[in-house]
Amino acid sequence: MDPFTQSRELLYFLAAHTGQEAVRYIREEMRQAALGRIPTAWELRSYFQFPDRPTALTAWQQILAVDKLLEYAEINLRTLCDLLRYRQLKEFGVVHSVDEFTALCHPHAKESEE
Question: Which residues contact 62 (CB under 8 A, 6 or more apart)?
Fold first, then answer.
């Protein structure tokens, strides 16, 4: 298999995996909010793909689903930014471990854990 095909297949796999992970996260957050009936994964994916079409989700479920999707995207973006910062700081010898990076870039993280 040529590298382009391998890369494309990997990209499709990762996209499907992250989509499933996001829907699981949203459903779990909705379950914790105790709204009653939790939309199925299919209902959520359908709503996100075609938000203008009729949906089985109530207005409150739609608002919460979009809010949790944005929250999930924010978490992923922050994680990605931290990984890039860590890689660059480690490359330049500023930090030598994740613990050093966390202490430098997130000094209040330990306080909030305690």
Answer: 47, 51, 55
